[in-house]
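Field reference: sequence -> structure
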Amino acid sequence: MLVMRFSALGDVAMTVPVVWSLARQYPDVDITVLSRGSMASVFALMPENVRFVEADFKGRHKGIAGLWRLMRELRVYRINRVADLHGVLRSHFLRIMYAMRGVRCAVIDKGRREKRRLVKRGYQKSAPLKGTLERYEDVFLRLGFPVTLEFAGFCFGDKQIAEAGVELPSGSFNVGIAPFAKHEGKAYPREKVSQLIKELLGKGAGVRIYLFGSGKEEGEVCRRIEAESEGRVVSLVGRYSLVEELMFMSRLDVMLTMDSANMHLAALTGTKVVTLWMATHPYAGFLGYGVDEELAIQLPLPCRPCSVFGNKPCRYGNYPCKDISPSYVARRIVSAAGGAAGMDMGAGQKDTASV
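Structure field:
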């Protein structure tokens, strides 16, 4: 079976629980995952009947000629089913080529019409849409392989953690923060991130914070914060591989993310995840696998969501959806992890996360 999902990173990460469950429940099925090379190390953690093939659309698989080359390279795997979990031009081309050869194929229904309606009407006048994970499951069902999700998260042993050098200090309250997102509408303002970190560090001397991100710009921001923290904040940006970052996440007491790839990656480790939703909304179906919607922090504004992916400019120009108190976020983070000895939880604030 060929499973296709090319980008973005978060969407590819969301395929992991489904593909893992499929592989466990159908051990005699040979599964070939076709995706971008950045996720190869994660799929290497899958059951033995899952292999990964890189789709190099900037190199040897670029353009129509590259897609034909990719088809020839895939011949060796004797594909007899195709699950298109992406539904874009490249995957359409490959799926159609297989269908013309008599291979049974199925493609994801992204629910574009329902999502446009959600944005137009607002979440307060809408019901939650079918989640992306369910949409992935539907594809396999149409191929004759119903899947029951049973993925419990990647488990890394103490020996693996020690060999990778990602051990966290014992006795500390370890918090991961991934404050960035691809689109402006989904990123917590940097000044609020700084305030949040100060709030958390003020909860007790045992608090340690680990910053996640990617790229040069995000790395520079995190290193500046690290330099000002007197050793209690550590930037992981650019220092570790993707799997090593997953190991870090698996050892955290709690992780704070935006509606971003890091939410989906943290969800793969079984770590408690607190999420911030601003321009987007969980109703669109992109809540991470196993992530508790009760831990989704958001403001009850009728203009939300203003887009499905957070890529549209704010109609008011100032993103009022981002006016979430860092003090409140800090309390929710500590509370989500069950509190910690010697920590000051502070005074209560009305829970604005309910929908």
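Note: Confidence is low (pLDDT under 50) at residues 345-355.
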